[in-house]
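Quick one: co-fold with guanine.
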Amino acid sequence: MITILRGELFHTPRSPFSDAGALAWFDDGAVAFDDNGGILTTDSYLAVRRIYPDAEVHQVPDAILLPGMVDTHVHYPQLGIIGAMGLRLLEWLQTRTLPEEARLADDTVARETARSFLRQLVANGTTTALVFGSHFPRAQDILFNAAQDSGLRITSGLVVSDRELLPELHRTPEQAYDASEALISRWHERGRLRYAVTPRFSLSCTDGMLEACGAALRARERLFFTTHLNENPDEIRVVAELFPWSRDYLQTYERFSLVGERSIFAHNVHVSDDELSRLATAGACIAHCPSSNSFLGSGLFAMRRHLERGVRFALGSDVGAGTSFSLLSEGQFAYIAQMLRPDGRRLGPAELLYLATAAGARALELSDQVGDFAPGKSADLVLLRPPAGSTLRAVLQRNTSPEARLGAIFTLAREASVCEVRVAGRVVHSTLEAHHDARDRGGAGETPRYRRERRGA
Ligand code: GUN
Ligand code: ZN
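Sure, here it is.
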């Protein structure tokens, strides 16, 4: 059976950083997908309806359809510390974050945290994420299990450290390798899950631990690598002291062959030109985490320099230093950070949408499947609906241009506007009055707020 979702539709099949006309918009648009959730066509509603007159049409009044969001950096154990104020990175880690992460030694805490974390992710419209995991192998196993049940596309891995900060979280390099290898065999490329080798950051790893990470990364094909880089001046100073042989922060990872096309480094706020050139040559990607960079006072991302040097980047929420799971909110923070930088890149809503969707899909080597609504990709999408009486609704009523409307969405649409989320066409989150996936429910159960229209059949 073919399903059509109808609504105002935005996506960025091309990059607006290189193509001014990259924003695709349909005032009354539609996506048609097949039983496997594969997109057949995306166009104006009338054009799609003409091709598939017998398809089942799902339409919610005032619906806005966006591709599922891609979060390239978010910490599973940090849900509970969002909003921990008054601290910069190292004291924030020492006093608030790592003690919270240590609670995941308890399986019951890990289970509840994993479920809640995934629920918040999808409730904010995120369908794909690179998730910074837990220091505890069992808690990491629990996350993978819960992620499998959620239907979301999750890449994640055990976090490893063997010095500094909180000793409770340390493992020896041998333990870290063995535990990572066991998790890799169990979860890498199983359904929508993949594994990322994840040292916390050089500051909390010895040479031996980074070497073990390199070995783990070579244990299987197509593994990912993620960590933190150049976030905060104090952190960078300590890394320089701990690695006297290294000419800069990036080299602490390069030495152990950890920098490549499947490497995603969070932050990179205070980066030298030389490091940027090497990141570009390696094809590595940056998870730009603008709300976190502001919240911890880390600094303003040098976006123009990344663009000039050809270093790829996409958005990350970095919960719990980030202020929410919403990549719409991250888009707004990214915009503001660039306005505040003297050399800031003036961003528009098309760039924000690209950074929240297609850029992340590219970073995670999933752009053949997700990131926009091109035919052949998977119907991963967010259905937004401005709440009755909301500021968003009032602003949208007064604006007809796609740029103004999408700008308002990035500025005002948050969790309360996320009505439904689908992965491969299947509903994975819904606040509509009755949960309704036509294929799951045999087409039964009309809801007042969700109209199904069937013609010709
Ligand atoms: N650097 C090392 N660990 C962390 C973390 O949990 N959050 C952030 N923002 N930076 C880090
Ligand atoms: Zn982080």
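If it helps, Residues 435-448 have pLDDT under 50 and may be disordered.
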